[in-house]
UniProtKB/TrEMBL annotation:
Family, per entry: Belongs to the PrpD family.
Highest taxon in the source lineage: Archaea
Start and end residues of each MmgE/PrpD N-terminal domain: 6-246
Organism lineage: Archaea, Methanobacteriati, Methanobacteriota, Stenosarchaea group, Halobacteria
Protein name: MmgE/PrpD family protein
MmgE/PrpD C-terminal domain span: 261-433
Originating species: Halovivax cerinus
Pfam families for this protein: MmgE_PrpD_C, MmgE_PrpD_N
Length: 449
């Protein structure tokens, strides 16, 4: 049975030299993906709210607030910068049978702590590897969604472990950091059920902030309940049930997907499929009488109507968690990017009308295939004359079986952040991340200021 000590020893024993070349490369691609998305999110009102709140509470600090003037404490920088990474719902995901968290939710917290501690790029990569590994293993072996907890319940533990690494905490301090984080910050699933609101895109930032604060408390001598997992009324007793983890030096990063479309994780194959179908058949949306999606249980539950009405779509947070909206917009526009989440587009008559003829069903066979590692989708589009066109998908570009490399990620950065990032700055940012081992963390964060 997993213990807090087991995680703390993993943190202590895992260093940059333990990471394979493939793991290092994959982690750096995760960093590029995350900062590109963050740049694009700077103009979003919820991230501006976070910025106003952070700067209202603090007047400067040693850590960079990405995309803004001034700085903040590592705690508030983690909050602000994680909000940027997460808000657009364009970040990475780890695909486990019972949980799909976003390991990139931990990156900005580790970066903030590493900047505070004046770490090297090698030390940063070790911290991120630890956070990714723990996030993935918790999701795989101790899913919490069906128990009513949000996946950021994993994030706060994983981020605290990565932060403990870059802060140089010893084994006891690391236990305390993980213990405080995991005891005090367990988020409810209601964040992603019913009528979704903007907190959905900010909840992981709150977890990242709490992770850094927990580690800072431990660094300054605060004890925590070091039997967090195994203790009476502890994490396994109350939240997850007994479980074991099998921790490797960051190898779980290879099981992380990159989003091709601005859409909830489980929608990626279906959206890619409907775009392919529309382009292949030259479909006229005005003549579409129905769209049927057969998918797996998790997709039906989260974005297909199992946890709330997904046909009443009025804002961005609701749109990117509504399969009816995403499929309708993708068929109409042959794309699902930032433009499809502008309020005017969301409320437009054509997409509002079309989303109401989308039907989503869960298929047990597709659920089995998902749990075996695929992301299957079967999309049928029926026309007014009765003709039906079908596309079947096993996965999508960006899935671990079809990963997006450096060229694809640079293209993604250009697409989402090109208007905000001149070519020379973009090239310098990409090259710095590609060669992160050769730089200090402050060199990276200077490019994000």
């Amino acid at each position: 049975m997993t213990s807090t000590l087991e995680l703390a020893r993993f943190v202590q024993e895992t260093d940059y030299d333990d990471l394979s070349g493939d793991v290092r490369d994959a982690l750096k691609r995760r960093v590029l993906d995350s900062v590109g998305i963050a740049i694009a999110a700077e103009v979003a009102e919820p991230t501006k709210i976070v910025h106003r709140t952070v700067t209202e509470l603090e007047d400067g600090g040693p850590c960079t607030l990405w995309g803004r003037d001034g700085g903040a404490s590592p705690v508030q920088a983690a909050m602000h910068n994680t909000a940027l990474v997460r808000y657009l719902d364009y970040m990475d995901s780890f695909l486990a049978p019972g949980e799909t968290p976003h390991p990139s939710d931990t990156i900005a917290a580790v970066v903030a702590a590493a900047e505070f501690a004046e770490c090297t790029g090698e030390q940063l990569l070790a911290g991120i590897a630890i956070a990714y590994e723990i996030q993935a293993e918790l999701a795989w072996n101790a899913p919490v969604r069906d128990e009513g907890f949000d996946h950021v319940t994993h994030t706060v533990i994983a981020a605290a472990a990565g932060v403990a690494k870059v802060l140089g905490l010893d084994e006891l301090e690391t236990q305390n950091a993980i213990a405080i984080a995991g005891t005090a910050h367990n988020a409810l699933r209601v964040t992603r059920t019913g009528g979704i609101n903007e907190w959905k895109g900010i909840a992981s930032a709150n977890a990242a902030r709490n992770a850094v604060y927990s580690a800072m408390l431990a660094r300054n001598g605060m004890d925590g309940p070091r039997n967090l997992f195994e203790g009476q009324k502890g994490w396994q007793d109350v939240i997850s049930g007994p479980f074991d983890v099998d921790l490797t030096p960051g190898e779980r990063v290879h099981d992380v997907m990159t989003k091709r479309y601005v859409a909830e994780t489980y929608a990626q194959s279906a959206v890619e499929g409907v775009v392919e179908l529309a382009e292949r058949e030259g479909l006229d949306p005005a003549n579409v009488s129905g769209i049927t999606l057969e998918t797996f249980r998790g997709a039906k539950l989260i974005i297909g109507g199992g946890e709330g009405n997904r046909y009443e779509v009025e804002n961005r947070a609701q749109a990117d968690h509504s399969l009816p909206y995403m499929l309708a917009a993708a068929l109409l526009d042959r794309d699902l990017s930032l433009a499809q989440y502008e309020r005017e587009r969301i409320l437009a008559a054509d997409v509002q009308d079309l989303l109401r003829v989308v039907d989503v069903t869960a298929d047990p066979d597709l659920t089995e295939r998902f749990e075996a590692g695929e992301m299957p989708a079967v999309v049928d589009v029926t026309m007014d004359d009765g003709t039906t066109y079908r596309v079947e998908k096993d996965a999508f570009r960006g899935h671990p079986t079809d990963p997006i490399g450096w060229d694809g990620l640079e293209e993604k950065v250009d697409t989402v952040a090109g208007e905000s990032l001149p070519d020379d700055e973009r090239d310098e940012l990409v090259e710095t991340i590609r060669t992160l081992e050769e730089h200090d963390v402050t060199e990276l964060t200077a490019l994000l200021a």
